[in-house]
Each structure stands twice: as structure tokens, then as C-alpha cells.
């Protein structure tokens, strides 16, 4: 019966990867005890957006095996690194860019990192906006100072389950950094390679606006899994987002999708929806996958000022729910991107 059980599991495909769970090495345990099948599935990310469908498909396939009366499906997760991992201990580097300021890029980056951490992933957040660092404030650690370990490696600060580094924690508050390109390049190198990030599934990088020195330094320094574009729906934001898209493509960085931030506003007193900046404009960006539409929500701004990501402070709000789904969709895209760099046949666990 064990062989029949494994044969049944070979008929169940991962909905995003389009290969069966057995050949993908996602089945950790499959055995039958007293007419009950026990199956453990190791997802490719703790933030798998289609976990429910996988469970339903496994149950249906296993219950079709003669002699099996019930099935107990449990889940684990193991984020697989690409063929060439980004950094020692860091599986995936994901850039969050916008092409222009004012679209809520840093807010999206912080809430993406927090969402992935809530799902159970090991997450780091690097604030690469050296001239205008805001991540530390958004995580409630604006006054913290970065220290070093015995190996003289920078120790990321930990907040809300996220390890992060920001220039705000290295320079005096309010002091402007008047740096040329080579100094920016040196700072990015230090953030990436002279920091004790430890074991991370995802390192989210909050980019500065534009397509300048920092973006170039990052793409030349580290193997990037992919990028996320953040935009608002109106044309003036999309024009610059298109430039950022062109930059990533020229740098051979896969663009995993777009987040339409401030996509709409729901009036709290009437429940009416207003498209303040238009809506759906992100679909004009070269056919990129839409990771999600995040509504304009005053609580997101308030939470950022208080130093608590909205997905933690107001998890049931429409904006937080949208951001959580964006994170799941992004994790799924990373898994698909990773599969393309792995061997066709993976070992069965």
C-alpha cells in the first residue's frame, strides 16, 4: 500500500511549479498506519500562497487509494536557494524599487519583510536608501546603534522578527550625507559583505528612488534573485517605474512583479471606494505579474510613525491583508524563479 500511496502523490502537482510533489522532493513522509495515511509536505516557502489547494489535492489523491480511509496532511517548509546563492547563509536577495519617490516603496518593503517573517521565514532587511534612510524609524529603532562582533562584522539590529541594517543607525540623527558614487558603493559593499546576516531565507533590499549608483552597485556586487516594482496607479509614477523596469532588465535582474500601492481608498464612514490616483495603471508595465493592489490607509502611515509594521499592528485591516497576500505571491514567484535554476529531477526526501 505504501507504493500505491507514493504513486498517488506523484499525480499531485505544485500549482505554481507545475511539477509533481514527489519529483520536486516536497514529500518528507508518506506512510500508512491502520488505514490512515500520514503525509508531510515540505513547501518551497513558509509563505506558500496555495497551501490550501495543495492540501486539498493531496487529500483527494490519497483517499482514492483502495484501503486508505483517512489522511493526515501536515506541512513543513524549506526555502530552496538558487543554483548560485546570493551571499554565504543568504538564499535570496530581493530588491524593492520604484523609479521615483513618494509611492510608499519603503513602507511596502518593511511590510513585505514583516509579512514573510510572520509566515515563518528568516528575513533580513537592508536599507539601501543611504541618503534618505527610513527603515529604522518604521521599525521603531531610530535611536539604536549598530555594533560589531568579535570578527569586526556589523551586527544587524533585530526588530519584529526582522534583522536590518540602515544608515540611520550609523550616522547622527538628522545629519545629511554628502557622498559621491565611490562612497555609496563602499557603503553598499559593507552592508552586504561586512555584516553578520546569519542564515536568511530572504534579504529584502529597500532601494533609493531612481536608477543610479546604488542600484548599479547592488546588481554588480551580489547575485540577485529578482526585483519588485512599487508604483501608484497614475501615469507620472508609471513613467518612472517603466524606467526602473528597463534598468533591471539591462542589469539582467528578473522582475518578479509589481505592487500597486495606494491603489484605492475606502472611506471609513461610508464604505465607498474612491480611486484617488486612478486604478489598475500598473497593468501597463510590460505585462508584469501583479503581486497585489494595496489600498491607501491612514493606519499604514500611523503605524510607520509608531515604528510597528501595519501587518503586525492592524493585521485585519484591508491594507495589511493586501500586503500579506503580496508577500505570499512574491514568495511563490521566488519559488518559480528558483526552480528554473535547479536540476530537472530533485531527490526524493
UniProtKB/TrEMBL annotation:
<keyword id="KW-0411">Iron-sulfur</keyword>
<feature type="binding site">
    <location>
        <begin position="99"/>
        <end position="106"/>
    </location>
    <ligand>
        <name>ATP</name>
    </ligand>
</feature>
<dbReference type="InterPro" id="IPR002744">
    <property type="entry name" value="MIP18-like"/>
</dbReference>
<dbReference type="Pfam" id="PF01883">
    <property type="entry name" value="FeS_assembly_P"/>
</dbReference>
<keyword id="KW-0547">Nucleotide-binding</keyword>
<dbReference type="InterPro" id="IPR000808">
    <property type="entry name" value="Mrp-like_CS"/>
</dbReference>
<comment type="similarity">
    <text>In the N-terminal section; belongs to the MIP18 family.</text>
</comment>
<protein>
    <recommendedName>
        <fullName>Iron-sulfur cluster carrier protein</fullName>
    </recommendedName>
</protein>
<dbReference type="InterPro" id="IPR019591">
    <property type="entry name" value="Mrp/NBP35_ATP-bd"/>
</dbReference>
<dbReference type="InterPro" id="IPR034904">
    <property type="entry name" value="FSCA_dom_sf"/>
</dbReference>
<comment type="function">
    <text>Binds and transfers iron-sulfur (Fe-S) clusters to target apoproteins. Can hydrolyze ATP.</text>
</comment>
<dbReference type="InterPro" id="IPR027417">
    <property type="entry name" value="P-loop_NTPase"/>
</dbReference>
<feature type="domain" description="MIP18 family-like">
    <location>
        <begin position="2"/>
        <end position="74"/>
    </location>
</feature>
<dbReference type="Pfam" id="PF10609">
    <property type="entry name" value="ParA"/>
</dbReference>
<keyword id="KW-0408">Iron</keyword>
<comment type="similarity">
    <text>In the C-terminal section; belongs to the Mrp/NBP35 ATP-binding proteins family.</text>
</comment>
<keyword id="KW-0378">Hydrolase</keyword>
<dbReference type="InterPro" id="IPR044304">
    <property type="entry name" value="NUBPL-like"/>
</dbReference>
<comment type="subunit">
    <text>Homodimer.</text>
</comment>
<keyword id="KW-0479">Metal-binding</keyword>
<keyword id="KW-0067">ATP-binding</keyword>
<dbReference type="InterPro" id="IPR033756">
    <property type="entry name" value="YlxH/NBP35"/>
</dbReference>
Amino acid at each position: 500500500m505504501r507504493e500505491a500511496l507514493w504513486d498517488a502523490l506523484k499525480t499531485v502537482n505544485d500549482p505554481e511549479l507545475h511539477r509533481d510533489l514527489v519529483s520536486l522532493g516536497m514529500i518528507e513522509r508518506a506512510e500508512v498506519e491502520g488505514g490512515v495515511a500520514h503525509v508531510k509536505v515540505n513547501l518551497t516557502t513558509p509563505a506558500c500562497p496555495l497551501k490550501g489547494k495543495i492540501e486539498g489535492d493531496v487529500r483527494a489523491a490519497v483517499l482514492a487509494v483502495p484501503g486508505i480511509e483517512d489522511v493526515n496532511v501536515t506541512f513543513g517548509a524549506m526555502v530552496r536557494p538558487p543554483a548560485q546563492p546570493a551571499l554565504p547563509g543568504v538564499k535570496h536577495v530581493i530588491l524593492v524599487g520604484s523609479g521615483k519617490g513618494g509611492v510608499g516603496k519603503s513602507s511596502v518593503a518593511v511590510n513585505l519583510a514583516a509579512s514573510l517573517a510572520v509566515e515563518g521565514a528568516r528575513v533580513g532587511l537592508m536599507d539601501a536608501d543611504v541618503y534618505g534612510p527610513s527603515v529604522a524609524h518604521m521599525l521603531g529603532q531610530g535611536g539604536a546603534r549598530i555594533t560589531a562582533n568579535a570578527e569586526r562584522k556589523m551586527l544587524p539590529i533585530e526588530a519584529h522578527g526582522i534583522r536590518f541594517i540602515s544608515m540611520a543607525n550609523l550616522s547622527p540623527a538628522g545629519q545629511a550625507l554628502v557622498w559621491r558614487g565611490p562612497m555609496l558603493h563602499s557603503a553598499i559593499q559593507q552592508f552586504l559583505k561586512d555584516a553578520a546576516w546569519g542564515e536568511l531565507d530572504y534579504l529584502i533590499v529597500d532601494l533609493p528612488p531612481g536608477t543610479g549608483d546604488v542600484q548599479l552597485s547592488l546588481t554588480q556586487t551580489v547575485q540577485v534573485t529578482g526585483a519588485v516594482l512599487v508604483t501608484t496607479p497614475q501615469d507620472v509614477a508609471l513613467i518612472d517605474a517603466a524606467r526602473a523596469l528597463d534598468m533591471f532588465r539591462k542589469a539582467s535582474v528578473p522582475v518578479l512583479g509589481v505592487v500597486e500601492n495606494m491603489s484605492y481608498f475606502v472611506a471609513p464612514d461610508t464604505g465607498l471606494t474612491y480611486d484617488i490616483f486612478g486604478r489598475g495603471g500598473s497593468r501597463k508595465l510590460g505585462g508584469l505579474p501583479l503581486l497585489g493592489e494595496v489600498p491607501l490607509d491612514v493606519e499604514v502611515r500611523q503605524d510607520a510613525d509608531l515604528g510597528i509594521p501595519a501587518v503586525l499592528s492592524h493585521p485585519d485591516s484591508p491594507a495589511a491583508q493586501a500586503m500579506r497576500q503580496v508577500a505570499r505571491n512574491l514568495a511563490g514567484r521566488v519559488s518559480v524563479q528558483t526552480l528554473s535554476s535547479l536540476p530537472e529531477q530533485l531527490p526524493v526526501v
